[in-house]
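Ticket opened by: R.M.
Priority: normal
Category: complex prediction / small molecule

The reporter submitted a protein together with zinc ion and asked that the result be attached to this ticket for the collaborator who will pick it up next week. Submitted input follows.
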Amino acid sequence: MTTPDLPPPPAASSPAVRAVMQGNRSRDTRPEAAVRSALHRAGLRFRKHVRPLPGLRCEADVVFARQKVALFVDGCFWHGCPVHGKTPKGNRLYWSAKIARNVARDQRNDAALAGAGWVVVRAWEHEDPAEVVSRVQFALAAA
Ligand SMILES: [Zn+2]
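Result attached by the on-call engineer:
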């Protein structure tokens, strides 16, 4: 081969990547739903998919408005999980830049929420829901 191949378009780099992306794009991901059920079983009441701050374009997965606790169940792929957040082999620069932007945005949102008196709980989608529930209970008790 005399000329290098052009990289394939990001969305088509592999069926596995596409499946991960589609899975992470939906609002009601399975890990998030599992966490919500666990919260319900623990007797907690909350709202889902709301913006904690009116002026901030940031929707939390679960919100305890009275205690000002916001829970985010972060997808391992999009939010750069240290365990599973490997960037795909194809288009590595594209993906690492995109995921780095997401991580930076998460940090800005966390700072904005904390500045407004909110407690932010972030969980990875790979975490045991029971573990997430105890972190949330801890945050609620401290609130
Ligand atoms: Zn993970």
